[in-house]
What does this fold into?
Amino acid sequence: MVNFKPTDEQELIRESMAGFAREVLRPAAREADEKNAVPETVVQRGWELGLVQSPIPEALGGYGDARSAVTSALLLEELAYGDLALTLHLLAPRLLTIPLLVAGTEEQRRRWLPRFAGAAFTVGTAAFVEPRWDFDATALATRAERQRGGYVLTGGKCLVPLAARAEAILVYAAAPDGLAAFVVEPGTPGLTVGERERNMGIKALDTFTLTLEGVRVPAAARLGGEGVNLQPLVDASRIAVAALAVGVARAAFDYARDYAKERRAFGVAIAQKQAVAFKLADMAIEIDSMRLLTWEAAWKLDSGQPATREAVLVKQYASQSALNITDNAVQVLGGHGYIREHPVELWLRNARGFATFDGLAIV
Amino acid sequence: MIDFELSEAIQTQRQMVHAVAEQAMRPIAREYDEREHEKPWDFLNMMWQVSSGHPVSEGAGKKPKQERPERNLAMCVSIEELSWGDAGLYLSIPNTGLGGAAVAAAGTPEQKERFLSRFSGGKPKWAAMAITEPGCGSDSSAIQTTAQRDGDHWVINGTKIFCTSGLMAAEKSEGFVVVWATLDRSAGRAGIKAFVVEAGTPGMYVTKVENKLGIRASDTATLVFEDCRVPLDNILGSPEVPKTSEGFKGVMATFDATRPIVAASAIGVGRAALDLVKDTLKEHGIEIRYGLSPHKLTVLERDVMEMEAQLEAARLLTWRAAWMMDNGLRNNLEASMAKAKAGLVVTQITQKAVEILGPLGYSRQLLLEKWMRDAKINVIFEGTQQINQLIVARRILGYSSKELS
It folds into this structure.
């Protein structure tokens, strides 16, 4: 039965994330962007939210909460409303833990998950995107060849969050039988973590390139073992990008709306001019459109139905809409929007990345 | 809990309505587009006969609301199907329509019984709403049609245009027209009231039926009122002219109920066009490759994917607005959002679809060019695109109509 109301529990989670975004993330966002660094206090307070620990089973030290893509979509929107780069940092360990929960073997879960259920932020991550202009999630250039009971990984990755400090990196590669992922430990011969990247946006987030030159991993390192279908993870990543895009777009919209009501021109608030008011109206409609499409795709994933089509459509839709909305927000502020004293230029830079942010978050 | 699965009852109803759309509407869609002022009586009679179990006639209030917890959502789903069949024919179906919606929203229990009970038997009937005038459209507070009290009657004078189903409601059935008129021009919005004028009332004349770009199966009439007398208790709401414009807001609230329905109809037209494009591509061995790198997708694939996402966004906004009504939540903002999104999206989708199918799309051999013409009405009636943007803007900015006009 069609229902647009989150559960009471989801509302509580949403409110606590909104509070954290307002009180911790937003105030730290500008400085973090300027300094290209995430403050430790934010990391520790973020860890205390339990984003990583919550879906890990109690037997493995976590909270044992049921994983829900819809709930994740709700909380990702709220966190991204605070700041995208800080959010991606806090969520990075989930790039390893969620795939382990969804597709990992019992042995893999037992081996890795307990160390992500401790009292301090523990770094895990995943390597999905490749440094090519025509990166194709359906045809990864990184190869996994079978060799002597294990696999050999060869290729290059980029946009790998926190790779230099990771306990383990989930490396996605094209195996002979399709898309596969491997838990690769730092120090494995052939694996090189490159220089910290310098990107247009999400500047506070440490991201790295990876080079894999004949990296040997045992068969047991393959996520879920041979033949596991990883498409739901790819879908979950696309839906996460969409949810984050909603948050960034809403941040920009709220700021532009408030500014437009304050700023006066020709004797009235500029929001009283239809040219500005209609722009804001269209932004509001698009934000709700993005959100509902995100919820629908997440719901589909949760109900176990194939969600690839929905995930692809919503990621494309939301990344384009977020770009339009943040661009319009800069435009509503005019010259002030271009100045780094206001956050809208930061949101525009961050939003431009959504089209590229495959595999940077997961619901 | 967030859920997008239609209930079984709605799914079953959707299948039934879809069959009607496919078997009874599609085959005659072209004919009644070409024969603009003729009526498909076989179809209209059939729809009237089956309407006892049909969602579009439920404004008659035969079933109490609590028995139909998803009434508005069900209506939106059905209307999407009917408009997938044909939007012009859908609009011409005999029912309580906009006039009935006004009575249902603002009428007393006695008025509802008196005006709406007729929609459950006898011959086909229509009810229409007459707001727009030659000198005012979007600014409905500026209407010039007057109603003056004379003993136990109201006397109505003025001219109304663009009245959907006006001909059927005023002259061709035992229906009625809800006419907006002012009791006091100097009172502005506060003076505007709605009056029920029964079909055939002396002094009400249909003087013109418009020739239109699309939705040609539905008549759009000019109604002239010359000393047209209606009983005192045909006024919807209080006859007092209040100091504030609260009364006017009440009348405008009718649109919160009808905008999701218009949006649903728009979506049906858009889906028809999109289905045709996808079917045509499929026939030619072209599958949309979801998930492929954007760099490898064809322009065609990107266009289709964009159309699909836009249409789904419009549908979800529409369902949300309907769901809110079903749950007793005020949906003024969301209804306007749905209408604005759906109207725009469907206008664009149908135009893109014609482009994609090239000379086939442009040809009257297919219904596609007709759907494009039909789609355009959705950014015009029930509040133009700009009026819906204005409503959304006022709501999100917290502005009154004075602060943002």
Summary: Chain A has a mean pLDDT of 97.
